[in-house]
């Protein structure tokens, strides 16, 4: 009976001791070096606007005879917006054609080099008159130069319109067409950053209250500074590309102008990288016996929370990101700080883990 009790006690003591030892063994968290895309960008903000916003006016004078469209209507390129009477225009065209016929008759009767040259000049002038009169006749029907939404129709049948840029020209364009299938954002970029950007660069546009970004390309870079604070800044126009459903005029937009993008860049989390005072850069890996081994690496650029590895690692290589040591009896056990002041784990009350921030000042 006594022997059995002693054996049982021995099993209990060794079992508890082994469990306690296992509970205090460090647990290493690793992460694999992986390929990613790294980019550099310049940020800015602006407002979404339609790329097409065009005022349309008559190029001829006359009285409006028809306005077959209304505000809010979507029109296609070439669709009739309005017409004016053609009585005077028809008379002008007939007179121009008569002048051309007379000039051609004179040319046919001309003799001698000088007479022929003069007659030919008259024919050319008369032909130009016919072309002008015909163009005016064609302009009696005002058509939409682009497709879009009519946001202004300031014209009624019976109104008098005056074409051209003279004193009889319309003070306000009778029609305004806004495109609904092409959008842009104009952002202001500082003098220091605008030199980094080129036409054709890609852009990521985050619209106010949108869940997903839209994309675009730099379509124009202004040559004149628009800065009003004494600091030179230039307008950069981004043309939105891809799916444009659901876009609206006047929406606030945050824009990232990407001027450099590299794909398949080998990276590890920056917390896994340590740089010594002498400039030597290392990561830690787990050796065959479970010990931590410092591995020299050559780093490149840092983007967000990852660092580029130029040399020293290959894709899939595991590097140490954190070391967790469970506590014992609620007191816990401190582990060495992670490289670069990263996160370390200590044993918490009752042997549970607790997370604390490591740093160079801890010691």
From TrEMBL:
Residues 354-363 have a biased composition (Low complexity). Transmembrane segments: none annotated. Residues 55-162 form the CzcB-like barrel-sandwich hybrid domain. InterPro entries: BSH_CzcB-like, MdtA-like_C, UPF0194_transport. Residues 342-353 have a biased composition (Gly residues). It is found in: Cell envelope. One of its GO terms (cellular component) is cell envelope. Residues 264-320 form the Multidrug resistance protein MdtA-like C-terminal permuted SH3 domain. Residues 342-363 are annotated as: Disordered. Residues 1-21 form the signal peptide. Keywords: Coiled coil, Signal. Pfam families: BSH_CzcB (PF25973), RND-MFP_C (PF25967). This is Uncharacterized protein.
């Amino acid at each position: 009976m006594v022997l059995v009790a002693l054996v049982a006690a021995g099993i209990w003591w060794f079992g508890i001791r082994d469990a306690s030892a296992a509970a205090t063994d460090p647990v290493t968290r690793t992460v694999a070096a992986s390929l990613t895309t790294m980019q550099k960008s310049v940020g800015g903000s602006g407002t979404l606007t339609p790329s097409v916003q065009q005022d349309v006016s008559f190029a001829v004078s006359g009285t409006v005879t028809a306005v077959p469209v209304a505000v809010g209507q979507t029109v296609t390129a070439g669709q009739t917006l309005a017409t004016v009477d053609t009585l005077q225009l028809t008379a002008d065209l007939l007179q121009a054609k008569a002048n051309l016929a007379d000039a051609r008759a004179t040319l046919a009767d001309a003799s001698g080099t000088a007479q022929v040259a003069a007659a030919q000049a008259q024919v050319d002038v008369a032909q130009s008159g016919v072309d002008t009169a015909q163009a005016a006749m064609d302009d009696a029907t005002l058509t939409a130069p682009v497709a879009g939404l009519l946001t202004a129709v300031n014209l009624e049948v019976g109104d008098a319109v005056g074409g051209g840029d003279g004193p009889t020209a319309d003070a306000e364009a009778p029609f305004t067409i806004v495109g609904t299938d092409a959008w842009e954002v104009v952002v202001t970029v500082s003098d220091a950053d605008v030199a980094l950007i080129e036409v054709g660069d890609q852009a990521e546009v985050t619209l106010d209250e949108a869940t997903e970004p839209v994309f675009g390309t730099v379509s124009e870079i202004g040559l004149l500074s628009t800065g009003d604070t004494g600091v030179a800044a230039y307008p950069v126009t981004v043309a939105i590309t891809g799916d444009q459903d659901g876009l609206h005029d006047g929406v606030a937009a945050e824009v990232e102008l990407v001027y450099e993008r590299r794909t398949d860049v080998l990276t590890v989390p920056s917390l896994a990288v340590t740089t010594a005072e002498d400039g030597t850069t290392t990561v830690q890996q787990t050796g065959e016996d479970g010990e931590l081994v410092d591995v020299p690496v050559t780093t490149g650029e840092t983007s967000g929370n990852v660092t580029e590895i130029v040399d020293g690692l290959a894709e899939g290589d595991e590097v140490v990101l954190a070391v967790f040591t469970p506590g014992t009896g609620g007191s816990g056990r401190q582990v060495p700080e992670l490289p670069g002041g990263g996160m370390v784990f200590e044993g918490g009350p009752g042997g549970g883990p607790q997370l604390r921030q490591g740093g160079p000042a801890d010691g």
